[in-house]
Amino acid sequence: MVWPCPLPVDAYVAAGRAVEFPRPACPACRAPMVLWAGYWRHVRAAGRCRKIFVPRLRCGCCRVSHALLPAFVLAWRLDVAETVGAVIAQVAGGRCGVRPAAERAGVPYTTARGWVRRFSVRAGGLGTAFAALAVELGGEPASAAADPRGFALAAIGAAFGAAAGLPGWLAVGCWRFASAVSGGRLIAANTGSPYLIVGTRRFMPPVPP
Ligand SMILES: [Zn+2]
Known about the structure:
7 helices, globular, 15% strand, 5 strands, single chain, binds zinc ion, 3-stranded antiparallel β-sheet
């Protein structure tokens, strides 16, 4: 599970185990969940590797536990969503090739190439899902472009533009928003997410007040 954390990475890191996070309902049965445990993992932001605490919540009813990732994290990726998103936006948006984008982001070329490849593979589905979300939120429909990657980028931008009109989301930012609504699986091979949005069903994780 991913929550729409608006905290700067530095602030999240500094809080350690004491970091404040919401207690979402169980995605399976909607019962309340309680803090169960947690683990430490690395993230890389602005070229620096940091350790963050990821709480694990457990459902009091079905007893399944779920890790609660802050939205600046993507599942199974070291680099934060903003870094990954910036590279994808530059390359998939046709502004530059992978190598200069990787250099600007301070990540290895092969890492950046992997992100762009995953995004390209998933572009059609992402474009459709985010365009549907944009419409659900009363935003502009993104029109399907000839290039699926351009369509996906436009749809993510349109959905975030619409979400930014709702309380809390503007501060979360576009790529954390994309991580939050895709359950951290924006560029993952396994796309199952409790929040992914298709058709008239909209699942956005609640923003803490
Ligand atoms: Zn449950």
